[in-house]
Amino acid sequence: MLVVKVIVFLAGYLILQLISVKSALAWGPGVHTALALSSLNSASLLLPPIARIITSFPIEYMYGCLSADFFIGKGKSRYKKNPHTWEGGFRFLQEAGTDQEAAYALGFLSHLAADVIAHNYFVPNLLSAYPGKGKMGHLFWEIRADYLIGSAYTRIARGVLEMDHQICDDLLKLIAGRKKNGFKAGKGFFAQTVKLSDRLHATHDLFFETKVVRRHYFHQYLSLMLDLSRSLVKDFLRHPETSPCLMYDPMGARNLLLAKKTRAFLRLSRSPRLVRRFDVDENLLRL
Question: pLDDT tens digits for the chain (287 residues)?
Fold first, then answer.
């Protein structure tokens, strides 16, 4: 059994090393699935037309919450049709010709709202506080978050991805300007990372630290960040035109860059270690 765990761990490590830091996800598939289910469960608190659409097509909504991460290299803002932006997300909604497509587009936009917290605060703070994780630090914390919320959500994500979503995929390719082969490769790669994330649940002792104090603080921090993401997604689905999340970059380019620069400086400097903090803005805490 130990040999199997070691093999899975090494395979996971090699795959993570092949993924560019700029291509990293924000929340993992398990967390995005949990947030999607939370929104569906709270439909009565959302804007009625939106609640009707996403509860009529819950699978499409969940698929939208996952498919924003199909785009390897999405961090390259120069990509003119980059869909992992508010502009790109609202293009989906504008082009949706049916409620089924609208549910998918709303899932995509919900993903962006959740990423506002993950990319601007959750990951930057951890990269700054624990610089020793190196290039795979970003993905390390995302996979750890998926592990802690439970494997059931990642398995649900796998099930959703294995379904036929031709209508949604056609809309995604139209908006993103992706050719058939490029889209298929991106979706296939993401599906493999979801399977990997699921299998890494069996390698906890090898992949994650076991210090009780550190684990306790991380659990508290993760709980806070998940609550903020959940609140922000629901606020967007209540106020899709005025939610404060629209003022933030869902890719968190600025804060992630600052966190990585801080990490690089700490490795080169012998001065006392100073941790850069990325505090959540008050207008997000009040939601």
Answer: 544 444 444 444 444 444 444 445 569 899 999 999 999 999 999 999 999 999 999 999 999 999 988 875 555 544 456 688 999 999 999 999 999 999 999 999 999 999 999 999 999 999 888 876 555 666 778 888 888 888 899 999 999 999 999 999 999 888 877 665 566 766 866 777 777 666 666 655 545 555 544 677 888 999 999 999 999 999 999 999 999 999 999 999 999 989 887 665 555 555 555 678 999 999 999 88
In a domain, residue 125? The reply is yes
- Tell me which residue range forms the domain holding 215: 23-284
Distance from C-alpha of 116 to C-alpha of 109, rounded to nearest angstrom? 11
* Tokens found for residue 106: 């709303």
Give the pTM.
Answer: 0.84
d(CA 270, CA 272): 7
**Number of domains into which the chain is organized:** 1
Q: Provide the CA 237 distance to its chain's centre, in angstroms.
A: 18
In a domain, 11, yes or no: no
Q: Is residue 81 part of a domain?
A: yes
What is the radius of gyration, based on Cα positions, of the chain? 18
Quick check: 40 and 61 in contact, CB under 8 A? yes
